[in-house]
Write a structure and sequence with these properties.
Jelly Rolls; about 0% helix; 6-stranded antiparallel beta sheet; 12 strands; mainly beta; about 130 residues; globular; homodimer
């Protein structure tokens, strides 16, 4: 009934493997749920990121705009030179090229979802930023 | 530090008003968090939808691809002529023009987030579909 050549995707968080930064002290982890390497989708990349207590999403920037939505927990997000508190229900639009990051100094995991309007998450070129967080 | 003329958005679910269908028996409700009528963002539209027990998201289609992610609860999603069970952590990519909908026959609220790669949610033209759900 669809004239779209892309098939629907029906999957679950549990179907994906967590990814970690190479910094073994940082327990940040994420899964790319839509737009990952084996995706049959297009136009959107979507994933989930967990920051356990003490974890950091190191400050970085990329050309693409990004949306964050906090699903659970509390933390702080860096936006350029500002630190903003976030909690379950917080939503952020991060314009392209703006330095951003996140930290969780609470005692519970901070969980957020992120999205880009790109076919593949690998289309997004991440650049680290020398910024304290 | 950004060469992007769009300012960051930092907001919270609680800052927005719930929207309802005109069908007063259907308690489905949603909030457009990114890409709503007063948005200063671009490229992505993102929102949250709650289906209390018994609620329906009536079958419909639109030209744009859509992503769903189930934040909480259990329910069923219609994709063309298939009904698929969803639960917290389910992720779906709904290709443009595919008929889809959702129902919650459980005893707890089903909460999902949705997104489109459009500047404004109002850019998406919804078309109802004659399909049982």
């Amino acid at each position: 009934m669809s004239d779209n050549c892309f098939a629907p995707l029906v999957a679950h968080l549990a179907d994906y493997t967590w990814q970690y930064l190479s910094d073994s002290e940082n327990q940040l982890r994420w899964k790319t749920l839509v737009g990952g390497p084996e995706a049959t989708t297009k136009g959107m990349s979507f994933g989930i990121c967990e920051l356990p207590p003490g974890a950091r999403l190191p400050p970085h920037h990329h050309a693409e705009d990004e949306v964050y939505y906090v699903v659970e927990g509390n933390g702080e997000v860096l936006l350029d030179d500002k630190i903003v508190p976030v909690t379950s229900g917080s939503v952020l639009f991060v314009p392209g090229n703006l330095v951003h990051g996140a930290r969780n100094d609470s005692e519970a995991t901070l969980t957020l979802v992120w999205m880009f309007a790109v076919d593949r998450w690998s289309d997004v070129a991440y650049h680290g930023a020398e910024r304290d967080l």
